[in-house]
Specification:
Double Stranded RNA Binding Domain, three-stranded mixed sheet, 43% helix
């Protein structure tokens, strides 16, 4: 390794040099303000000037290399007879024995927390006082202990000493490695005491619990909306900025979050890695699978506060709510007709363009939507999967069942604004309105007589053919 000095640990020159500069008692802890030596040592640590010729690990001083190579040169020759645990250094054995025999005898007078070693107590007390005596000379950030500073320095040097033995991925912090390993093991040790959902990291559990409590502490300064965690807020802000930093490499489509790109890419690959154990159907994401499962267990989480009706999907509740509010935010630019849902507008536009992309394989008839094709197909099969739970009558489509149920309840939700007459369905109201307007849209091609509905026209045609 070029530019790295590899030391012969049989020589004690380095150790003696350090002794002359730093007192033995203070060698492990070097507060900021010790001046030139501390800053020089920190800077050299970033460069990694001194290296171990066994494992190629780099250090900021000769003394650190000297102490490090004891790990390679010595066996774990110090052991405790009670637990048979072995140590390289006698000091580590002494510390371990103290924990086992005397317990945690150093107590914090402020919070009562106990420690097995006085040095750990000293560092802990700084969490109360706010003291941070160890300074990074690169970014000027301060830390409570020298070990925290040493770990922080790896961010500047790019040094990742902690490696996953399963996949080889390396990490700067031990906490990140621990969290990562749980991906391989599937371990989720942190459980919510409200819904029993488990998480691989405590921070994820803390954020999750806010969903139960409704604690939304992160506010958007643009629209005032609140969010459970900062990540949700950052994603939300992209709605205002229009930023879509994540793009699909295949089609170039852009997204506001990385997870959306991953799910989208599966539409190209056809990958659906999340199967339903009930029906075997597979889905591109776990969230879509979770929503799908509600079909099997009958779970309807989203309830209308006006009428009490419940829905499996939140989007269905939003659309349903517009029935009560009268809101129809989607309008046709050609005829001005409005709709409660964007998909209905999309299908409606085909009535202007004449586009009918869905074909019946039996009679070759074409339809503007897939749902219309499915309902039509039941005419050929005779299938009527929907039945009235009052009288048992069966229907081929849900809208016909809904209208039929009103014959039992007496409900007539569609009112004529001119004469106040009520109707069970919107098509009947539309037909009725033509009596007031005099509009006759349906013409007989034989005698040119006009009618307000197709049913009246059909009846009239029978007078021509004698039926």
């Amino acid at each position: 390794m070029e530019g790295v000095k590899h030391l012969d640990t049989s020589k004690t020159t380095a150790f003696n040099t350090i002794n002359r500069v730093v007192p033995q008692a203070d060698r492990d802890e070097e507060p900021a303000g010790w001046g030139t030596f501390t800053e020089e040592r920190s800077l050299r640590g970033n460069i990694g000037e001194y290296g171990c010729d066994v494992c190629w690990k780099t250090f900021s001083s000769e003394h650190e290399v000297f102490k490090h190579k004891e790990i390679h040169n010595k066996e774990e020759r110090y052991h405790r007879e009670i637990c048979e645990k072995r140590f390289v250094c006698k000091s580590n054995l002494t510390k371990h024995s103290r924990i086992q025999t005397r317990g945690k005898q150093f107590h914090c007078e402020i919070c009562g927390k106990s420690f097995s070693d006085n040095s750990n107590l000293v560092v802990h007390i700084r969490s109360h006082t706010g003291e941070k005596p160890y300074r990074c000379v690169v970014c000027e950030k301060y830390f409570v202990s020298n070990s925290n500073l040493a770990t922080h320095k790896r961010m500047h040097s790019g040094e990742k000493l902690l490696k996953c033995e399963i996949c080889g991925k390396a990490f700067v912090f031990n906490s990140d490695l621990t969290k990562h390993i749980r991906i391989h093991t599937g371990e989720k040790p942190f459980q919510c005491d409200m819904c029993w959902k488990s998480f691989s990291h405590t921070s994820n559990l803390i954020v999750h619990k806010r969903r139960h409590t409704g604690d939304k502490r992160f506010q958007c300064e643009i629209c005032g909306k609140y969010f459970i965690d900062n990540k949700d807020l950052m994603r939300h802000k992209r709605i205002h900025t229009g930023e879509k930093p994540f793009s699909c490499e295949i089609c170039g489509k852009c997204f506001t979050q990385k997870s959306s790109v991953v799910i989208h890419c599966r539409t190209h690959s056809g990958e659906n890695p999340f199967p339903c154990e009930v029906c075997g159907k597979s889905f591109p994401s776990s969230s879509i699978l979770t929503t799908h499962k509600r079909i099997h267990n009958g779970e309807k989480m989203f309830r209308c506060e006006v009428c009490g009706k419940s829905f499996i999907y939140k989007s269905d509740l939003t659309t349903h709510g517009r029935i009560h509010s009268g809101e129809r935010p989607f309008h046709c630019e050609t005829c001005g007709k409005t709709f409660t849902h964007n998909s209905n507008l999309f299908v409606h536009k085909r009535s202007h363009t004449g586009e009918k992309p869905y074909r019946c394989d039996v009679c070759e008839k074409y339809f503007v939507s897939n749902s219309s094709l499915k309902i039509h197909t039941r005419m050929h099969t005779g299938e009527k999967p929907l039945h009235c739970d009052v009288c048992g009558k069966c229907f081929s489509d849900n809208s016909s069942l809904t209208v039929h149920k009103r014959s039992h309840t007496g409900e007539r939700p569609y009112n004529c604004e001119i004469c106040q007459k009520s109707f069970v369905c919107n098509s009947h109201l539309t037909k009725h309105r033509r009596k007031h307007t005099g509009e006759n849209l349906f013409n007989c091609e034989i005698c040119r007589k006009s009618f307000t509905s197709t049913s009246y026209l059909t009846k009239h045609k029978r007078t021509h053919n004698g039926k």
